[in-house]
Amino acid sequence: MTISKIPIHPHLIRKIPEQFSWIDHRLVRDRHLDYIGRDGAALYLFLVTVCDARGLSYYGDRSIAKRLGMSDSELAEARNVLVQ
């Protein structure tokens, strides 16, 4: 059985920058790491590591929280920080 997922916001799919790196340089250059905190950074790293070519992850919240050692509320807050 194949799971079919569609990006919620296709216009936000990451474009690989010219100075390609597995982790986007803007995290440091634009000081995003200063604002997302440790949990946000851990969630971002996990998601970019497991995503497919369209940026979609097939991990559920329970699996992500367990892998990152977060509670459900910590995961929800980390995701909210990344969305903002």
Kindly, what is the distance between the CA atoms of the first and last residues, rounded to a whole number of angstroms?
Answer: 34 Å
Q: Describe the global form.
A: globular
Counting H and I runs of at least 4 residues, what is the number of helices? 4
Number of separate strands: 0
Average predicted confidence as pLDDT: 87
- List the secondary-structure elements in sequence, H or E: HHHH
Integer count of domains: 1
The radius of gyration over CA amounts to 13 Å
Strand coverage percent: under 5%
Helix content: 40-55%
**Content-based structural category:** mainly alpha
Report low-confidence residues grouped into runs of 5 or more: none
- Tell me about the biggest sheet? none
Description:
This protein has 84 residues and is mostly helical. It is 50% helix and 0% strand. It is built from four helices and no strands. It has helices at residues 26-29, 33-50, 61-68, 72-83. The longest helix is centred in the middle third of the chain and has 18 residues, at 33-50. The protein is globular. The mean pLDDT is 87.
Reconstruct the topology from this structure.
Layout: H1 26-29, H2 33-50, H3 61-68, H4 72-83
Helix pairs in contact: 2-4
Give a nutshell description of this structure.
The protein contains 4 helices and no strands. With 84 residues, it is mostly helical.
